[in-house]
Amino acid sequence: MTVSDAEVAAAKHMRVNPKTPFFRVVDGVTSSWTALEPMTGAEFTIRLKAPVTVHSLAVWQTVSGRLAVAKDVVFVGDGKEILKTELANKRGQQKVALLQPATFKELTLKVISEHAGIAESQGWGSISEVEGFDKDGNNVLASPPRSVPRGNAEELMATYRAVKTDRPHASCVHDLHRWLHESQNET
Ligand SMILES: [Ca+2]
Question: Structure pTM?
């Protein structure tokens, strides 16, 4: 099982599926995805440990069946809009160069609209990855997860983050104790 040090927080109005934790949008794996519900109005923030300067940004969409697909999106770096762009209804990397490099510690992605014409759209969809490239072409947003001995660590961390987001002062000590206890029993 894997856990991530990436801090990616969904906006309060979003429904978070604990099975698709938000850290997956920066895990460096373009096939691992995070559900966005609702799609139109979706919003989440990637909190970095230190500021980065990016020259371009990229999004990998999930295109599958009835899933809604993001169209107009806005990127906000440390509270300032740095890119507004239209994403195509297609798979693969969609990379956009910034007019000027942007430096930030927090990057928010907002989905303004979704593509019309998706039969029986369920109003939710997903994206697989958000990338930000520095002047040398390195993806400075990537935060690859680490392996841990066992178990429900991924789910636990997702729960922990969800609770922390909803109730910043809530304690998750009980969950952590349970997880550590189970880890010790199985190793
Ligand atoms: Ca991913």
Answer: 0.77
